[in-house]
Amino acid sequence: MQVIEGINALPVFHNPVITIGSFDGYHKGHKAIVDRTCEIAKEVNGQSVVVTFDPHPRSIIYPSDQGLKLLSTKEEKIELIGLSAVDFLVIVPFTVEFSQLIADEYIEKFIVQYFRPHTIVLGHDHRFGLNRLGDINFLQCYGEKFGYQVDQVSEQLVDNTIVSSTKVRNALMDTQVELALEYSGHPYLLQGKVVPGDQIGKSLGFPTANLQIDNPLKLVPPAGIYAVYAHIEKAIYPAMLYIGDRPAIKGNHNTSIEINILNFEADLYDTDLKVELVSFIRPDMDFDNMNLLKQQMQNDRVVITDLLQHRPSQYVANAEA
Questions:
Q1: Residues linked to residue 236 through DSSP beta bridges, in sequence order
Q2: CA 8 to chain centre
Q3: pLDDT in tens, 200-257
């Protein structure tokens, strides 16, 4: 897969079959659309082109909205889409000016001018243009004029529920990590760099790596203890993750993301770390003293060790990423 950032120097695509979207979280619904795009491209001896946006359109259209939480960073999205047989991934800068294109301008001045598609593949709920007034019917009306076809992919269901980024997001915020995996088809990741901490975990016999998330808009699940896998370069380690403001430590009000890698003692400062969420274990708790906290952490470690022995990592890396 060739990744192209920007639209000012696009190649001349051959019989391009394109799909367009934010693809946040790249869930099973997104994958079905991308797979269909690749399938049609093969049928027409063309090239498959996935078009996405950065930053997320909502951050530009509603700049004062503090509620936007991303399921996938740009880098994660590139890696996930790259697992499919896509020829090109085009990342379009989303600007205020771009957001003002009305639906017919979006078709003529963006889709047709830059991509000249043979076929446009869309999901069941795709909307576009200013105020999201464009839909598949609108797109089909212009098909004969501009010489493209339109193909629509039906919704994907999990337990009779339509898969969407909102469903994945809600599952994570309800600490239903396994359900989020079912909707997504891949595990949820937290990625960042290990930064210095206050060594409290180490003093309790549980040395932790403090994770600083790469993207401040990345969704961080609710406070508590999670069973996870730590990915360090190409190695995978069972671990337990803590998210919270450490109520047992008086005077602390900052949210921490700390990972204790089981049976691992190397110095990880300044290391890039991927954390694969597997299961929620318990909510955050307050303790009267550090001995009680230590005992609970020992109990957590037993539970997590047993759980991970029966739940292998679901993360599949894209070698191109």
A1: 231
A2: 27
A3: 666 566 788 899 998 989 999 999 999 999 999 889 999 999 999 876 555 555 689 9
Q: 224 near 283, Cβ under 8 Å?
A: yes
Dist. CA 13–CA 117, nearest whole Å: 8
Nearest to 176 by CA among 124, 117, 141, 222: 222
Q: Where are the beta strands (DSSP E) in the chain?
A: 2-5, 17-20, 48-54, 88-93, 119-122, 149-152, 157-158, 161-162, 189-195, 209-213, 224-232, 235-244, 256-261, 272-282
The residues that bridge with 304 in the sheet, in sequence order, are: none
The predicted model scores a pTM of 0.93
Furthest C-alpha separation in the chain = 74
Residue 80 β-bridge partners: none
Q: What is the mean pLDDT of residues 46-51?
A: 98
